[in-house]
Write a structure and sequence with these properties.
By secondary structure, the chain is of the alpha/beta class. It has 4 domains: about 170 residues, Rossmann fold; about 200 residues, CoaB-like (Rossmann fold); about 150 residues, no CATH class; about 100 residues, no CATH class. The chain has 22 helices and 25 strands. It has an 8-stranded mixed beta sheet, with helices on both faces. A 5-stranded parallel beta sheet has the order 2-1-3-4-5, sandwiched between helices. It has a 4-stranded mixed beta sheet with strand order 22-23-24-25. Strand 19 and strand 20 form a beta hairpin. The protein is flat, with a radius of gyration of 36 Å. It binds ligand PMT.
Length: about 700
């Protein structure tokens, strides 16, 4: 119903293609348009006015005066009424009259009075269409600003084939939609709107409510739909009809019901405008039967409802816009600014009950729109005009989003992470909390701008973050094991090589559904984001080390800084000087001077070794053997460093593949000698290499 409420004058002229006018009327009406058909006399020879009036639901106009009532059919009024005029089919004769101003029928006089844009869909024989006279007339119409809908090629009524067939009705309707909405930033956008009051039940006959009529929210919903948005309107109990047929309406009663619907819908939406007057509290107990009067006093215990706006503010992604209202009675602007910030809104619409004609139930409102840039104060207006101002503000922000914010977020993704949350170890199911955590982590890792560099899509580093939940309690306390791994393709092949892999046990953190995951390296008060950021920098840093010798210094130092600054988080994984290996010891060792040979190895092994191996196996493998000597050097510099052991663990399969197929016996024995010294527990793997040496 994208053309809902649009007023279209359809001019039909005498062509064999007039039958297509019936389909055109049907499609326009189906899209919600109001259609007034104006026919020329000769058009009536091809299609009956009865058909078109039945389909359009309006009497067809053809004469200057109605033969039944003698009333004048005002072409001037039609010219003012219409949002667009389509002449389809348009014959050569009518096109000529329109070009020359020969106003001898109602259609042409209507055309000459038309204030709205005009679309002309010619239909005629190919030679008539190609004739210089027709082409000149079409050029004249173009010069008047009319749009000519080029005819298609195909078989014509004359049985000749060529250009002259009237464009198909469905394409004309699409063109019209594009015309109306192409410039609207709201076209096709999904917008969620709340409206009306909420009723909080006390017993079957009583509730706590407020005076909201829904008028303001419904006006906003209508305005969004008129501008081409797909609107979901979640309304509390009101006595209003749905203001636009294209609106999807969901009726709710209580704040909890509104919360559940809105939270479920929001992830699919581009924006939300929260106009409902939501009760902040509800009766703690709802009586099943009518409460009887038993004494002079009674009190009702209330408990807090969720703050829907604040929930959405936490859920909001960087691609979504969120607007709220503030209904104030005092200190209006400062209260509104406080709500803007607290609920993480992009803008807030302030209306104050101190202003006459503003707020509940009336048909007018006086608002101030406040955002980060400042405040715009509007005079008292009708609620539909206020809705227009609010929706224009939203459109402006959406446009700025498209122009500035979206392109930035595309270049910010160094990591291409798959996040998995394995909950098989724990009893009970809070699938909502787990799904939300998984989604929040996926977005956090993939959307965060970890470096100042631009990564193309094919440069992103593939990695897996698998969280195995070891314990969970309803207050949001998690203990997890994190299996983190990153891989890089070997250039020119379909193989990939593991660059980092570690199993990190006993990570404790808190996550409450809809919490936004944020990382601030100066304030590491969230162990989850600190751990994830640590691994993000480690992965990107090691990847850069593998691209150029010591290339990852900057990023790896960031990981080291996190590890140093996170000492007071109380998580065992960060403990410095621990006899056990942990993420702190991994980065502390890797960045230690003693591990320089290992860091050199990262580049030589991957870029010179693996990449070359696939061009000429021998040369590449020899470089890898030299790298194993570098590994030995690093090991001898610091035998207790876990990072050398870790490297052999996650590379063991790759090394077995390399040396089982290539290399001489002595070379294999030397390599196995080094690997066995560093990681004797992996003897099964190293034995495979030795067997291949026999
Ligand atoms: O419906 P009408 O009769 O036309 O009246 C319109 C209106 C006065 C109701 C409307 O213009 C308006 O001001 N709506 C917001 C009323 C309100 O609840 O304001 P608030 O300042 O208490 O709330 C601030 C914001 O938080 C609002 O966007 C509100 O929808 C939201 N909220 C509030 C409480 C809650 N538990 N959840 C919420 O989402």
């Amino acid at each position: 119903m994208q053309l809902q409420g649009k007023k279209i004058v359809l001019g039909v002229t005498g062509s064999i293609a007039a039958y297509k006018a019936a389909m055109l009327v049907r499609l326009l009406v189906k899209e919600g348009a109001e259609v007034q058909v104006v026919m020329t006399g000769s058009a009536r020879e091809f299609i009956t006015p009865l058909t078109l009036s039945t389909l359009s639901g309006r009497p067809v106009l053809s004469e200057f005066f109605s033969s039944a009532s003698g009333e004048w059919n005002s072409h001037v009024e039609l010219g003012l009424w219409a949002d667009a005029m389509i002449v389809a089919p348009a014959t050569a004769s009518t096109i000529g009259k329109m070009a020359s101003g020969i106003a001898d029928n109602l259609l042409v006089t209507t055309y000459l009075s038309m204030k709205a844009p005009v679309f002309v869909a010619p239909a005629m024989d190919l030679d008539m269409f190609a004739h210089p006279s027709t082409q000149r007339n079409l050029d004249i119409l173009r010069s008047y600003g009319n749009t000519i809908i080029e005819p298609a090629s195909g078989e014509l009524a004359s049985h000749l084939s060529g250009k002259g067939r009237m464009e198909e009705p469905c394409n004309i309707v699409s063109l019209l939609k594009d015309f109306f909405f192409a410039d609207s930033p709201l076209a096709g956008k999904k917008i969620l709107i709340t409206a009306g009051p909420t009723y909080e039940k006390i017993d079957p006959v009583r509730f706590i409510g407020n005076y909201s009529s829904g008028k303001m929210g419904f006006a906003i919903a209508r305005e969004c739909a008129v501008q081409g948005a797909e609107v979901t309107l979640v309304s509390g109990p009101v006595a209003l009809g749905t203001p636009h047929p294209a609106i999807k309406r969901v009726d709710v009663e209580s704040a909890m019901q509104m919360h559940d619907v809105v939270v479920g819908q929001f992830p699919e939406c581009d924006a939300a405008i929260l106009c409902a007057a939501v009760a902040d509290y509800r009766p703690a107990v709802q009586a099943y039967e009518k409460i009887k009067r038993t004494s002079d006093n009674m009190s009702i215990e209330l408990e807090a409802n969720p703050d829907i706006a604040a929930c959405l503010g936490r859920m909001k992604s960087e691609k979504q816009l969120l607007a709220g209202f503030a209904l104030e009675t005092n200190d209006a602007e400062s209260n509104a600014r406080h709500k803007l910030q607290k609920k993480n809104l992009d803008f807030i619409v302030l209306n104050s009950l101190e202003d006459k004609g503003a707020g509940f139930a009336v048909d007018t409102n006086k608002v101030t729109i406040i955002d980060k840039e400042g405040a715009t104060r509007y005079p008292l207006k009708s609620k539909s005009e206020v809705a227009h101002d609010i929706v224009s503000h939203l459109s402006k922000l959406l446009l700025m989003f498209l122009l500035f914010i979206m392109p930035l977020s595309i270049e910010a993704q160094e990591l291409n992470a798959t996040v998995t949350l394995n909950t098989s170890k724990i009893q009970g199911t809070n699938t909502e909390a787990f799904n939300l955590l998984k989604n929040a982590l996926t977005e956090f890792i993939n959307n965060q701008k970890w470096t100042g560099y631009n990564y193309e899509e094919n440069e992103r580093i593939a990695c897996n973050f698998t969280f195995i939940v070891d314990s969970y309690s309803d207050d949001g306390a998690f203990t997890c094991t994190l299996m983190v791994q990153s891989t890089r393709p070997i250039f020119g092949t379909t193989y990939s090589s593991v660059l980092f892999k570690y199993e990190d046990k006993g990570i404790r953190f808190n996550y409450v559904p809809y919490d936004r995951l944020e990382f601030n390296e100066d304030n590491l008060d969230n162990n989850l984001t600190a751990v994830v950021a640590f691994y993000a920098y480690t992965i990107i840093g090691m990847d850069m080390d593998s691209m150029g010798e010591f290339g990852g210094n900057e990023l790896l130092n960031k990981a080291l800084n996190i590890a140093n600054n996170a000492q007071n988080l109380g998580d065992s994984g960060w403990r410095a000087g621990s006899s056990e290996n942990n993420r702190y010891t991994i980065i502390d060792d890797y960045m230690n001077g003693s591990m320089q040979p290992l860091r050199q190895l990262m580049y030589r092994y991957h870029r010179l070794g693996l990449d070359t191996m696939f061009k000429g196996a021998d040369a590449g493998r020899k470089i890898i053997t030299e790298c194993i000597t570098l590994l030995k050097e690093a090991y001898e510099n610091k035998p207790l460093a876990y990072i050398t052991k870790l490297f052999t663990e996650y590379k063991q399969e790759e090394l077995v593949n390399i040396y089982s197929n290539e290399g001489g016996g002595d070379e294999k024995k030397a390599v196995v000698g080094i690997l066995s010294e560093i990681s004797p527990s992996l003897s099964n793997s190293w034995d495979k290499i030795l067997k291949s040496a026999l």
